[in-house]
Amino acid sequence: MNHVDPAFIKGLTIGLGAIGPAIGVGLVGSAVVGAVGRNPEIQGKILSTAFIMIGLVDAVFAFVLLILFTT
Amino acid sequence: MLAPLFATQSLAAEKIFTIGPLTITNSMLMGLIGGAFVLAFFGAAAKATQLWPKSRFTFYVETFVELIFDMMEETFGDRKKTMRHFPLLITLFVFVLAANLSGLLPGFETIKLSVDGSYVSLFRSWTTDLNSTLAIAVLALTTVHVYAIRDIGPGGYFRHFFSGSLKNPINIFIGLNELFGEILRLVTLSLRLFGVIYGGEALLFAIATLAGNFGWAATLPIMFLEIFVCLVQAYLFMMLTASYIAMSTSHGEESESHSVPLNAAGKA
Protein backbone atom coordinates (compact mmCIF):
# COMPACT_ATOMS: atom_id res chain seq x y z
CA MET A 1 0.00 0.00 0.00
CA ASN A 2 2.96 2.31 -0.46
CA HIS A 3 1.71 3.66 -3.70
CA VAL A 4 -1.98 3.77 -4.57
CA ASP A 5 -3.12 5.06 -7.91
CA PRO A 6 -5.13 8.30 -7.34
CA ALA A 7 -7.52 7.27 -10.10
CA PHE A 8 -8.35 4.15 -8.09
CA ILE A 9 -9.17 6.29 -5.04
CA LYS A 10 -11.31 8.58 -7.17
CA GLY A 11 -13.19 5.64 -8.58
CA LEU A 12 -13.80 4.29 -5.09
CA THR A 13 -14.92 7.73 -3.89
CA ILE A 14 -17.60 8.10 -6.51
CA GLY A 15 -18.58 4.44 -6.40
CA LEU A 16 -19.04 4.19 -2.64
CA GLY A 17 -20.31 7.75 -2.31
CA ALA A 18 -23.09 7.19 -4.79
CA ILE A 19 -24.59 4.28 -2.83
CA GLY A 20 -26.07 6.31 0.01
CA PRO A 21 -27.68 9.10 -2.02
CA ALA A 22 -29.00 6.53 -4.52
CA ILE A 23 -30.74 4.60 -1.74
CA GLY A 24 -32.01 7.89 -0.29
CA VAL A 25 -33.48 9.13 -3.56
CA GLY A 26 -35.02 5.70 -4.12
CA LEU A 27 -36.71 5.79 -0.71
CA VAL A 28 -38.02 9.31 -1.35
CA GLY A 29 -39.32 8.25 -4.74
CA SER A 30 -41.09 5.16 -3.45
CA ALA A 31 -42.65 7.14 -0.59
CA VAL A 32 -43.87 9.81 -3.02
CA VAL A 33 -45.43 7.28 -5.36
CA GLY A 34 -47.16 5.61 -2.40
CA ALA A 35 -48.39 8.89 -0.96
CA VAL A 36 -49.72 10.17 -4.30
CA GLY A 37 -51.45 6.84 -4.84
CA ARG A 38 -53.19 7.13 -1.49
CA ASN A 39 -54.32 10.73 -1.79
CA PRO A 40 -53.86 12.14 -5.28
CA GLU A 41 -55.67 15.40 -4.44
CA ILE A 42 -52.66 16.80 -2.55
CA GLN A 43 -50.14 15.76 -5.20
CA GLY A 44 -48.66 19.25 -5.49
CA LYS A 45 -47.94 19.45 -1.77
CA ILE A 46 -46.37 16.01 -1.69
CA LEU A 47 -44.21 16.80 -4.70
CA SER A 48 -42.92 20.04 -3.21
CA THR A 49 -41.95 18.23 -0.02
CA ALA A 50 -40.36 15.51 -2.12
CA PHE A 51 -38.23 18.05 -3.98
CA ILE A 52 -36.97 19.42 -0.69
CA MET A 53 -36.02 15.93 0.41
CA ILE A 54 -34.36 15.14 -2.91
CA GLY A 55 -32.40 18.38 -2.60
CA LEU A 56 -31.24 17.41 0.87
CA VAL A 57 -30.22 13.92 -0.24
CA ASP A 58 -28.64 15.21 -3.42
CA ALA A 59 -26.33 17.46 -1.42
CA VAL A 60 -24.52 14.38 -0.11
CA PHE A 61 -23.72 13.33 -3.64
CA ALA A 62 -22.63 16.89 -4.41
CA PHE A 63 -20.08 16.66 -1.61
CA VAL A 64 -18.77 13.49 -3.20
CA LEU A 65 -18.42 15.29 -6.53
CA LEU A 66 -16.75 18.20 -4.75
CA ILE A 67 -14.17 15.94 -3.13
CA LEU A 68 -13.67 14.07 -6.40
CA PHE A 69 -13.03 17.16 -8.48
CA THR A 70 -11.01 19.21 -6.06
CA THR A 71 -8.44 16.69 -4.86
CA MET B 1 -5.67 12.55 -16.78
CA LEU B 2 -8.07 14.40 -14.54
CA ALA B 3 -5.42 16.25 -12.56
CA PRO B 4 -4.26 18.73 -15.24
CA LEU B 5 -7.86 19.18 -16.31
CA PHE B 6 -8.99 20.63 -13.01
CA ALA B 7 -5.91 22.63 -12.34
CA THR B 8 -7.63 25.33 -14.39
CA GLN B 9 -10.62 25.60 -12.08
CA SER B 10 -9.53 26.46 -8.57
CA LEU B 11 -11.65 26.01 -5.48
CA ALA B 12 -11.24 29.62 -4.40
CA ALA B 13 -12.41 32.57 -6.47
CA GLU B 14 -9.61 34.38 -8.26
CA LYS B 15 -8.69 38.02 -7.93
CA ILE B 16 -9.33 40.11 -11.03
CA PHE B 17 -8.64 43.64 -9.79
CA THR B 18 -8.41 45.69 -6.63
CA ILE B 19 -10.13 48.89 -5.52
CA GLY B 20 -7.85 50.29 -2.84
CA PRO B 21 -7.56 47.63 -0.12
CA LEU B 22 -10.59 45.72 -1.42
CA THR B 23 -9.90 42.75 -3.66
CA ILE B 24 -12.56 42.10 -6.24
CA THR B 25 -12.82 38.45 -7.23
CA ASN B 26 -14.55 37.12 -10.30
CA SER B 27 -17.41 35.65 -8.25
CA MET B 28 -17.97 39.00 -6.53
CA LEU B 29 -18.17 40.68 -9.92
CA MET B 30 -20.78 38.15 -11.03
CA GLY B 31 -22.69 38.67 -7.78
CA LEU B 32 -22.89 42.39 -8.50
CA ILE B 33 -24.01 41.76 -12.08
CA GLY B 34 -26.57 39.21 -10.92
CA GLY B 35 -27.90 41.55 -8.27
CA ALA B 36 -28.21 44.38 -10.77
CA PHE B 37 -30.00 42.07 -13.20
CA VAL B 38 -32.50 40.88 -10.60
CA LEU B 39 -33.09 44.43 -9.44
CA ALA B 40 -33.66 45.65 -12.99
CA PHE B 41 -35.91 42.70 -13.85
CA PHE B 42 -38.21 43.06 -10.86
CA GLY B 43 -37.98 46.85 -10.90
CA ALA B 44 -39.28 46.87 -14.46
CA ALA B 45 -42.09 44.53 -13.45
CA ALA B 46 -42.97 46.64 -10.39
CA LYS B 47 -43.02 49.80 -12.48
CA ALA B 48 -45.43 48.35 -15.01
CA THR B 49 -47.71 46.71 -12.47
CA GLN B 50 -51.29 47.92 -12.20
CA LEU B 51 -54.70 46.59 -11.19
CA TRP B 52 -55.29 45.14 -14.63
CA PRO B 53 -51.85 44.21 -15.92
CA LYS B 54 -51.58 45.15 -19.58
CA SER B 55 -48.12 43.82 -20.20
CA ARG B 56 -47.66 40.09 -20.40
CA PHE B 57 -44.26 40.30 -18.67
CA THR B 58 -45.77 41.87 -15.54
CA PHE B 59 -48.51 39.29 -15.50
CA TYR B 60 -46.03 36.42 -15.48
CA VAL B 61 -43.87 38.02 -12.79
CA GLU B 62 -46.94 38.63 -10.63
CA THR B 63 -48.05 35.03 -11.08
CA PHE B 64 -44.63 33.82 -10.04
CA VAL B 65 -44.59 36.04 -6.93
CA GLU B 66 -48.11 34.89 -6.05
CA LEU B 67 -47.03 31.26 -6.37
CA ILE B 68 -44.12 31.75 -3.98
CA PHE B 69 -46.36 33.72 -1.62
CA ASP B 70 -48.85 30.87 -1.43
CA MET B 71 -46.04 28.42 -0.66
CA MET B 72 -44.79 30.65 2.12
CA GLU B 73 -48.28 31.09 3.51
CA GLU B 74 -48.54 27.33 3.77
CA THR B 75 -45.26 27.20 5.67
CA PHE B 76 -46.10 29.99 8.10
CA GLY B 77 -49.82 29.33 8.35
CA ASP B 78 -50.42 33.03 9.00
CA ARG B 79 -50.89 35.74 6.39
CA LYS B 80 -49.59 38.63 8.49
CA LYS B 81 -46.42 36.78 9.42
CA THR B 82 -45.92 35.81 5.80
CA MET B 83 -46.24 39.44 4.67
CA ARG B 84 -43.49 40.42 7.09
CA HIS B 85 -40.97 37.77 6.08
CA PHE B 86 -41.86 37.45 2.40
CA PRO B 87 -39.56 40.19 0.98
CA LEU B 88 -36.42 38.58 2.38
CA LEU B 89 -37.46 35.08 1.35
CA ILE B 90 -38.29 35.89 -2.27
CA THR B 91 -35.10 37.93 -2.55
CA LEU B 92 -33.11 34.92 -1.36
CA PHE B 93 -34.87 32.66 -3.85
CA VAL B 94 -34.57 34.90 -6.88
CA PHE B 95 -31.03 36.01 -6.21
CA VAL B 96 -29.72 32.52 -5.47
CA LEU B 97 -31.53 31.20 -8.54
CA ALA B 98 -30.02 33.91 -10.76
CA ALA B 99 -26.57 33.23 -9.30
CA ASN B 100 -26.93 29.47 -9.77
CA LEU B 101 -28.20 29.65 -13.33
CA SER B 102 -25.62 32.22 -14.40
CA GLY B 103 -22.94 29.51 -14.24
CA LEU B 104 -24.59 27.74 -17.18
CA LEU B 105 -24.33 30.73 -19.51
CA PRO B 106 -21.79 30.61 -22.33
CA GLY B 107 -18.58 32.49 -21.62
CA PHE B 108 -18.20 31.33 -18.05
CA GLU B 109 -14.83 29.66 -17.40
CA THR B 110 -13.93 30.27 -21.02
CA ILE B 111 -13.35 34.03 -21.21
CA LYS B 112 -9.95 34.46 -19.61
CA LEU B 113 -8.26 37.54 -18.29
CA SER B 114 -4.54 38.01 -17.70
CA VAL B 115 -3.93 39.07 -14.10
CA ASP B 116 -0.42 39.19 -12.61
CA GLY B 117 0.91 36.93 -15.32
CA SER B 118 -1.66 34.15 -14.93
CA TYR B 119 -4.93 33.59 -16.70
CA VAL B 120 -8.11 33.71 -14.64
CA SER B 121 -11.66 33.48 -15.89
CA LEU B 122 -13.51 36.79 -15.95
CA PHE B 123 -16.86 35.34 -14.87
CA ARG B 124 -17.52 32.78 -12.20
CA SER B 125 -21.00 32.20 -10.88
CA TRP B 126 -21.58 33.73 -7.48
CA THR B 127 -22.55 30.56 -5.63
CA THR B 128 -19.43 28.62 -6.64
CA ASP B 129 -17.49 30.53 -3.98
CA LEU B 130 -17.79 29.39 -0.37
CA ASN B 131 -17.40 32.97 0.87
CA SER B 132 -20.59 34.06 -0.91
CA THR B 133 -22.72 31.16 0.28
CA LEU B 134 -21.40 31.56 3.82
CA ALA B 135 -22.27 35.26 3.66
CA ILE B 136 -25.83 34.61 2.49
CA ALA B 137 -26.28 31.86 5.10
CA VAL B 138 -25.08 34.23 7.83
CA LEU B 139 -27.56 36.83 6.58
CA ALA B 140 -30.43 34.34 6.60
CA LEU B 141 -29.65 32.90 10.03
CA THR B 142 -29.03 36.32 11.61
CA THR B 143 -32.49 37.31 10.44
CA VAL B 144 -33.90 34.13 11.98
CA HIS B 145 -32.36 34.88 15.38
CA VAL B 146 -33.19 38.60 15.35
CA TYR B 147 -36.84 37.85 14.59
CA ALA B 148 -36.87 35.07 17.18
CA ILE B 149 -35.66 37.45 19.90
CA ARG B 150 -38.07 40.15 18.76
CA ASP B 151 -41.11 37.88 18.62
CA ILE B 152 -40.73 35.70 21.69
CA GLY B 153 -38.41 37.89 23.78
CA PRO B 154 -34.96 37.06 25.18
CA GLY B 155 -36.46 34.82 27.87
CA GLY B 156 -38.48 32.84 25.38
CA TYR B 157 -35.48 32.67 23.08
CA PHE B 158 -33.43 31.23 25.92
CA ARG B 159 -36.23 28.81 26.78
CA HIS B 160 -36.29 27.71 23.16
CA PHE B 161 -32.93 26.04 23.73
CA PHE B 162 -32.96 25.28 27.45
CA SER B 163 -36.46 24.07 28.18
CA GLY B 164 -37.61 22.58 31.46
CA SER B 165 -35.88 22.87 34.81
CA LEU B 166 -32.24 23.92 34.60
CA LYS B 167 -31.40 21.92 37.74
CA ASN B 168 -31.63 18.81 35.67
CA PRO B 169 -28.29 18.35 33.88
CA ILE B 170 -29.88 16.54 30.97
CA ASN B 171 -31.76 19.75 30.04
CA ILE B 172 -28.50 21.69 29.96
CA PHE B 173 -27.00 19.01 27.77
CA ILE B 174 -29.98 19.12 25.40
CA GLY B 175 -29.69 22.91 25.28
CA LEU B 176 -26.01 22.76 24.38
CA ASN B 177 -26.85 20.22 21.72
CA GLU B 178 -29.47 22.58 20.30
CA LEU B 179 -26.94 25.42 20.25
CA PHE B 180 -24.50 23.20 18.39
CA GLY B 181 -27.31 22.41 15.96
CA GLU B 182 -27.70 26.13 15.26
CA ILE B 183 -24.04 26.35 14.26
CA LEU B 184 -24.42 23.21 12.20
CA ARG B 185 -27.30 24.82 10.33
CA LEU B 186 -24.97 27.57 9.18
CA VAL B 187 -22.43 25.05 7.94
CA THR B 188 -24.93 22.83 6.16
CA LEU B 189 -26.83 25.75 4.60
CA SER B 190 -23.70 27.29 3.09
CA LEU B 191 -21.84 24.10 2.23
CA ARG B 192 -24.83 22.48 0.54
CA LEU B 193 -25.42 25.36 -1.84
CA PHE B 194 -21.71 25.71 -2.61
CA GLY B 195 -21.10 21.98 -2.99
CA VAL B 196 -24.02 21.32 -5.27
CA ILE B 197 -23.38 24.20 -7.65
CA TYR B 198 -19.61 23.83 -7.71
CA GLY B 199 -19.84 20.06 -8.08
CA GLY B 200 -22.33 20.44 -10.91
CA GLU B 201 -20.15 22.87 -12.81
CA ALA B 202 -17.09 20.72 -12.34
CA LEU B 203 -19.12 17.77 -13.61
CA LEU B 204 -20.12 19.71 -16.73
CA PHE B 205 -16.50 20.66 -17.28
CA ALA B 206 -15.35 17.05 -16.91
CA ILE B 207 -18.03 15.67 -19.22
CA ALA B 208 -17.25 18.30 -21.85
CA THR B 209 -13.55 17.47 -21.74
CA LEU B 210 -14.03 13.69 -21.77
CA ALA B 211 -16.44 13.87 -24.71
CA GLY B 212 -13.97 15.85 -26.81
CA ASN B 213 -15.55 16.92 -30.08
CA PHE B 214 -18.98 15.73 -29.00
CA GLY B 215 -19.03 17.85 -25.86
CA TRP B 216 -22.03 19.81 -27.10
CA ALA B 217 -24.13 16.61 -27.25
CA ALA B 218 -22.78 14.99 -24.09
CA THR B 219 -23.32 18.04 -21.90
CA LEU B 220 -26.92 18.62 -23.01
CA PRO B 221 -28.59 16.10 -20.65
CA ILE B 222 -26.28 17.16 -17.80
CA MET B 223 -27.25 20.76 -18.54
CA PHE B 224 -30.95 19.97 -18.03
CA LEU B 225 -30.08 18.14 -14.82
CA GLU B 226 -28.14 21.21 -13.72
CA ILE B 227 -31.07 23.53 -14.41
CA PHE B 228 -33.27 21.29 -12.26
CA VAL B 229 -30.66 21.12 -9.50
CA CYS B 230 -30.20 24.91 -9.53
CA LEU B 231 -33.95 25.38 -9.14
CA VAL B 232 -34.18 22.83 -6.34
CA GLN B 233 -31.26 24.33 -4.44
CA ALA B 234 -32.61 27.89 -4.65
CA TYR B 235 -36.03 26.64 -3.55
CA LEU B 236 -34.45 24.63 -0.75
CA PHE B 237 -32.50 27.62 0.52
CA MET B 238 -35.65 29.73 0.69
CA MET B 239 -37.74 26.92 2.17
CA LEU B 240 -35.21 26.08 4.88
CA THR B 241 -34.89 29.74 5.87
CA ALA B 242 -38.68 30.01 5.97
CA SER B 243 -39.05 26.92 8.13
CA TYR B 244 -36.26 28.09 10.47
CA ILE B 245 -38.08 31.42 10.88
CA ALA B 246 -41.42 29.67 11.37
CA MET B 247 -39.96 27.26 13.92
CA SER B 248 -38.04 29.80 15.99
CA THR B 249 -40.72 32.52 16.08
CA SER B 250 -43.55 30.25 17.21
CA HIS B 251 -44.37 30.01 20.90
CA GLY B 252 -43.51 26.37 21.31
CA GLU B 253 -46.56 25.01 19.49
CA GLU B 254 -44.69 24.18 16.29
CA SER B 255 -46.36 20.86 15.76
CA GLU B 256 -49.79 22.47 16.01
CA SER B 257 -49.09 25.29 13.56
CA HIS B 258 -47.61 22.80 11.13
CA SER B 259 -50.53 20.45 11.21
CA VAL B 260 -53.19 23.15 10.68
CA PRO B 261 -52.57 23.86 6.98
CA LEU B 262 -52.23 20.16 6.25
CA ASN B 263 -55.61 19.40 7.80
CA ALA B 264 -57.20 22.30 5.94
CA ALA B 265 -55.85 20.94 2.66
CA GLY B 266 -56.99 17.45 3.50
CA LYS B 267 -60.58 18.61 3.96
CA ALA B 268 -60.61 20.73 0.81
Which helices and strands occur, and which strands form pairs?
The complex is a heterodimer of chains A (71) and B (268).
Chain A: H1 6-17, H2 19-38, H3 43-70
Helix pairs in contact in A: 1-3, 2-3
Chain B: H1 2-6, E1 15-19, E2 22-25, H2 26-48, H3 56-76, H4 79-102, E3 112-115, E4 118-121, H5 130-161, H6 169-211, H7 215-248, H8 254-267
Antiparallel strand pairs in B: 1-2, 3-4
Helix pairs in contact in B: 2-3, 2-4, 3-4, 4-7, 5-6, 5-7, 6-7
Q: Unreliable runs of chain B, pLDDT <50, ≥5 residues?
A: 1-7, 254-268
Can you summarize the main beta sheet of chain B? 2 strands, antiparallel
What's the number of extended β-strand segments of chain B?
4
Biggest β-sheet of chain A, characterized? none
Percent of residues in β-strands of chain B? 5-15%
Widest sheet: strand ordering of chain B: 1-2
Helix proportion range of chain B: over 70%
Gyration radius of chain B, to the nearest Å?
A: 22 Å
Oligomer: heterodimer
Query: What's the tally of helices of chain B?
Result: 8
Descriptive notes:
- The complex is a heterodimer of chains A (71) and B (268).
- The longest helix of chain A has 28 residues.
- With 71 residues, chain A is an all-alpha fold.
- In chain A, 85% of the residues lie in helices and 0% in strands.
- In chain A, helix 2 packs antiparallel against helix 3.
- The radius of gyration of chain A is 17 Å and the shape is elongated.
- The two termini of chain A are 19 Å apart.
- Chain A has 3 helices and no strands.
- The model of chain A has no long low-confidence stretch (mean pLDDT 87).
- Chain A has a domain of 37 residues.
- In chain A, 15% of the residues are buried.
- With 268 residues, chain B is mainly alpha-helical.
- Chain B has one domain.
- A two-stranded antiparallel sheet of chain B has the order 1-2.
- The N and C termini of chain B lie far apart (58 Å).
- The N terminus and C terminus of chain B are likely disordered.
- At the A-B interface, helix 1 and helix 3 of A face helix 1, helix 6, helix 7 and helix 8 of B.
